[in-house]
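Marked as duplicate of an earlier ticket. Keeping the data here for the record.
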Amino acid sequence: MAQDLKDTFWKRLDNVTAGLLSTDSERPVPMAPQADRGENAIWFITAAGSAADRASQSGGEARFDVADPKAGLYAVIEGKLDHGSGDKLDDVWNAFAAAWLKDGRDDDSVRLVKMTPHKAEVWATENSASFLWEVAKSNLTDATPEGGEHGRLAF
């Protein structure tokens, strides 16, 4: 089951548009993840001096929280932050990042941060119509609704 849930996690994380990234004792901030299962990494584009940038300079720990009903993924992901390279930045650059940085990809403040997950608690839910059916069925039968898969992952 754990391998199936890990596969589901990476597939669905690829469809997540935003989550909350928190580093050290800093407040959580919205960030757009770029999932990269092949490198066991979640990439974030941020600005110089941000909490994520500062934590990545020291190999700090971080937490990324996801609650995305469209992707069917709810997760608490913990891992280590590091700097990313310019080549990888070219791979993950997108219009969302460009909207936040004045000079786009060439902005001097652009920083790429790599999160290497250590562990995660994951809830992979069914689509909303299936979930509504489960709730309705539960109310008629007193059974607990089936909400999808849940488990803890180690990376």
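See parent ticket for discussion. The mean pLDDT is 88.
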